[in-house]
Design goal:
Layout (H helix, E strand, L loop, with lengths): L4 E5 L1 H14 L4 E2 L1 E2 L1 H5 L3 H11 L4 E3 L2 H7 L6 E3 L8 H6 L3 E5 L2 H9 L4 E7 L7 E2 L11 E6 L10 H16 L4 E3 L3 H4 L9 E2 L22 E13 L4 E2 L5 E2 L4 E6 L16 E4 L2 E4 L9 E4 L10 E4 L3 H8 L3 H6 L6 E4 L1
Parallel strand pairs: 1-20, 2-11, 3-4, 4-5, 5-6, 6-7, 7-8, 7-9, 9-10
Antiparallel strand pairs: 1-12, 12-15, 12-19, 13-14, 15-18, 16-17, 16-19
């Protein structure tokens, strides 16, 4: 069965974005964050395309996500670390490494036999990771493949960026590791000193624009489309949608589309979103429903059964909805057919 809503996913744009970020990374290797099911696009499909393009390092959140791509990814790092219940999986796949975040996790890995691992150092975000001022002795005996940290404010000009860089460089100088990694998508654009040995883009791979320097460089990957369920006329003075928030000032032609907030097209797009019928911009009218969307197709050649394109250029969609570009990607629901081209 074919769903009445779909995501057109642009393979060429995905590969272009990774290669562009790789070029911006300079001599550093360029990996890819594919957590949250490849930011909502489908992790296996993303990994397969990026492996073919030359990517060798992939980052996921959990061991279940690692298992999903274990047979096609050359190397996977599990960012959320190593719980006791994760040990059987951690020992099953030699090319999947835990990113150790706490002294307890470090001890657990050592006690279970050790081996190659990654270590996250918290340099000021106060999220995951061993503090940057932890004693060097904590890391003794570890076979650290990649020493990582994560920037909190890479998408803006913030003094914490330089502070995190300095802290990470200090740790990297005293803790032996094969590679070091600090920069996310926005971090790549902060300058060569932030790139170390390996960069870890996420958002920008999928069409997100993480900082002003990335504008015009990153291509859109995700193009949602929804089918018209009904075309109808609304008279002047009538209302559209829940709570009658939109009142027609003149007669209008409306189309009702099979998409709503249950699919990730949130209520923030109410009266702010845009849909395209060819080149004709069709504004959203009234509140976004759970499964339905009303748009003004006055003057457009639109009929029941037609497919319309949702304006989902991520910076613009973020401004229209009040949601972050990350939320817009990872919130895309299961009811979409995901169609790669």
């Amino acid at each position: 069965m074919h769903a009445p809503l779909r995501l057109r996913l642009d393979s060429a744009a995905l590969v272009h974005n990774w290669r562009t970020l790789g070029q911006r990374s300079g001599p550093a290797a360029c990996g890819a964050a594919v957590k949250a099911n490849g930011y909502g696009l489908g992790a296996r499909e993303v990994v397969g395309r990026l492996v073919e393009a030359g990517c060798r390092d992939f980052f996921v959140a959990t061991w279940a996500e690692a298992e999903a791509v274990a047979d096609i990814a050359p190397a996977v790092s599990v960012l959320h670390g190593l719980r006791e219940e994760d040990l059987p999986q951690a020992r099953r796949w030699p090319h999947i490494r835990p990113v150790l975040n706490t002294p307890v996790q470090i001890a657990r890995w050592r006690d279970s036999g050790g081996g190659p691992c990654d270590v996250m150092v918290d340099t000021g975000m106060n999220r995951l990771g061993v503090r940057w001022d932890a004693p060097t002795a904590l890391f003794e005996g570890l076979e650290i493949h990649t020493l990582l940290s994560h920037l909190a404010c890479a998408d803006e000009d913030h003094p914490l960026n330089a502070e995190q860089h300095a802290r990470f460089a200090e740790v990297a100088a005293r803790v032996p590791a094969k590679r070091t990694s600090l920069a996310n998508s926005a971090g790549i654009f902060l300058g060569q000193e932030f790139r170390f040995d390996l960069t870890r883009p996420g958002l920008a791979l999928y069409g997100g624009v993480p900082c002003p320097a990335a504008e015009g460089v990153i291509r859109q990957v995700v193009h949602p489309e929804a089918q018209v369920l009904q075309r109808r006329r609304m008279r002047a003075g009538e209302t559209a949608g829940y709570n009658a928030t939109y009142v027609a000032q003149a007669d209008q032609e409306l189309a009702v589309l099979n998409i709503g907030y249950a699919d990730g097209y949130g209520r923030g797009f109410s009266d702010t979103g845009t849909v395209f019928a060819g080149d004709v911009a069709c504004p959203v009218r009234g509140r976004v429903s759970m499964d339905l969307l009303i748009v003004d197709v006055t003057g457009a050649d639109v009929a029941e059964g037609d497919w319309l394109s949702i304006d989902y250029a991520l910076p613009r969609a973020s401004a229209a909805s009040g949601r972050s570009q990350y939320e817009l990607l990872t919130g895309l629901g299961r009811r979409f057919d995901r169609v790669w081209r």
